[in-house]
Amino acid sequence: MSVIKVTDLHKTFKVSKRPKGLPGTIANLFAPKYSVKTAVNGISFEIQKGEAVGFIGANGAGKSTTIKMISGILYPDSGEIEALGFDPHKQRKQYVSHIGVVFGQKSQLSWDLPVIDSFELLKHIYRIPEDVYDSNLKMFTEMLDMESFIEQPVRQLSLGQRMRADIAAALLHSSELVFFDEPTIGLDVVAKERIRKFIRYMNREKHVTMIFTTHDMKDIELTCDRLILIDKGQILYDGKVHDIVTKYGKERKLIVEFDGDYEIERMDDVVIESKDEFKRMFTFNCEKVSLKHLLAHLTDKYGIKDFTVKEMEIEEIVRNIYEGGIVL
Amino acid sequence: MTPYLAYFKISFKQNTVYRIEWVLGIVNTCVQIFILIAIWKALYSGQRAMNGIDFSVIATNFIISLGLSNVFYTNDFAIQRKLNDGSIANELLKPIDFRKILLANNLGEIVFKFFSNFIPSLIITSLAIGILPPAGILALFFYAISMVLGFAVLWSISLIVQMTAFWIINVWSVSTIKDVFIRVLSGIALPLWFMPKPLLKIIEYTPFDSIYHIPMQIYLGQLGLAEIGFSMMKQIIWVAVLYGISVFMWHRGKEKIIMQGG
Q: Which of A13, A121, A179, A185 best probes binding to B when mutated, by most B CB atoms within 10 angstroms?
């Protein structure tokens, strides 16, 4: 069953262009100048129930705008959006009672109220039945480890705690569809891991459909099955996270630290780059070149102090796509 | 408990926190009333009536209408603030009616102020200056309804001012102009009985006399039963028209929301 169906979405913003200095300011008063900025330029996709989809793209690529249009905050200039069988704008109230949204940069909780009071208010807003509320709250308190701070006002929470409280708030009404807009921004590794684990659990076990925007590729690798890559308001790639890794992840990097300054001979299918004085990086395709042979060859001829092998990370793949290095 | 009642309660509770503000609020209301009464006393220069209007009528008008104007709280900047800091998104993401939330918030404050500010000020100024009782039980009853309708008119006007935030970003100027109109044309600064007849005819075609003047006339027993019916009808029509305009503006305005980045 398709949960979200988006067809040919467009959105432009008017950006005020003001010339520099006082004369410019005065001129702008009488004849304001605008330039039109295209944020989303013809995006179409479909998301099935239970999917976890990662949206990635550079800053200003249009991913947040797309999410805000699907969640019903922004109006598209043109295009169709159908989510959970609703029109997010015409049937806003029915629609939003089934969804949850988490903004990493903005809290939805009341600043001055203790976390638990905000949750209580949400119970009334979403008219959550008492037993559902109690069991959800109990589960989230345990899984997100909120016991210690649930009675504190939101303004006194650390960023990690606030984020966990926000995520719980978005899921309290048993949301079927949840949008995460950069939920791990600014968090440390431990806090990120805890949030990823929770999100993964909600997706795999509770079959909550999820859309995720982030700059952290690890988030996507660890929580999503599907990846949509957006750039300049258009979709560059839409497919399995796994596929992009296997297709473009055959590359290995062998970084070797030699014990002296050697002149390394050229080898077929291996790109050699100098790193440091005694360090060299060998980039190769692991299907064409055997790592075993390469290492044997190097240890035979030169003295090796240390070496590491690295897989190509998605981050790098994405950067390559951006720079036009990989054609999809 | 409906979500709106929950919002009402929170707003009410938040207001009970500030005790000094509460005491100063009473002082503020009383001082305003005393000053205006002093000015009008000077204008009357010892006479009991002027233009056929008793001084006690004027005093009653100020004690009640001016007292209420300090209670009838509307926040013209509510939407502007939500647009500026982006929290309008939070409201749109909840399955609730945004305008009802605004109303619930306002009413929480109003109900609190009615008992904590209006009633004490009413007692203090009545004892100090003297107030006319309502024209009768029936008049008091109709006055109560008309007063609520008057607030509904005031609130709808404020809602329209708030909605302009979608287009003009800073509503300060619109809000100030609105406040001047209300101050002058609704009878709280200058009782409308002193307005020249032609001007009063014009004012009667605006929503402003619906706010404080009509309820006051009912309280004082200046209107017959038929006139009360007609005046309340007028109030209801104004509420419907003004609220309708604000709803229309809300639907158009929502489409203009811009939010980039975070």
A: A121
Phi and psi based region of residue B52 (left: phi greater than 0; alpha: psi -120 to 50; beta: remaining): left
What does pTM read for this prediction?
A: 0.82
Compute the C-alpha angle B190/B194/B199, nearest 5°: 95
Band of pLDDT at residue B27, cut at 50, 70 and 90: very high
Interatomic CA distance for residues A110 and B89, integer angstroms = 14
Residue B188 has pLDDT above 60, yes or no: yes
Q: Report the CATH number of the A4-246 domain.
A: 3.40.50.300
Instruction: Please list, in sequence order, all residues whose beta carbon lies within 8 angstroms of the beta carbon of residue A87, skipping any fewer than 6 positions away.
Output: A81, A95
Domain boundaries, chain A: 4-246, 250-311
pLDDT tens, A109-152? 888 788 999 999 999 999 999 999 999 999 999 999 999 999 99
Interface of A with B in 249-278 (CB under 8 A): none
> Over B210-258, what HEC string results?
HCCHHHHHHHHCCCCHHHHHHHHHHHHHHHHHHHHHHHHHHHHHHCCCC
Which residues from B are below 8 Å from A126, CB to CB? 94-95
What are the tens digits of pLDDT across the range A39-75?
A: 899 999 999 999 999 998 877 788 888 999 999 999 9
Place of tokens 């700059």: A215
DSSP string, A133-150: HHHHHHHHHHHTT-TTTT
CATH 2.40.160 for domain A250-311, yes or no, is: no
Alpha carbon distance A47, A52 (integer Å): 9
The three state secondary structure string of A123-135 is HHHCCCCHHHHHH
- Give dist(CA A321, CA B128) in Å, integer: 81
B16 touches chain A (CB under 8 A): no
pLDDT surpasses 50 at B97: yes
For A94, the token pair is: 């029915």
For A123, nearest residue in chain B (alpha carbons) = B3
- Domain residues of chain B, as ranges? 2-260
Q: Which of A65, A73, A121 sits opposite B93 (nearest CB)?
A: A73
Q: What angle do CA B122, B128, B130 make, to 5 degrees?
A: 75
Q: How would DSSP label each residue in A155-212?
A: GGS-HHHHHHHHHHHHHTT--SEEEEESTTTT--HHHHHHHHHHHHHHHHTT--EEEE
C-beta of residue A278 within 8 angstroms of C-beta of residue A258: yes
Measure the CA–CA gap between B52 and A95, rounded to whole angstroms.
61
CA distance A101 to B232: 45
Answer for the pair A270, A289: CB distance below 8 angstroms, yes or no.
Answer: yes
Q: Is the pLDDT of residue A275 over 50?
A: yes
Please report the ipTM that was assigned to this predicted complex. Answer: 0.76
Neighbours of A161 (CB within 10 A): 20
Cβ(B215)–Cβ(B148) below 8 Å:
no
Q: Which residues pair with A145 in a beta bridge?
A: none
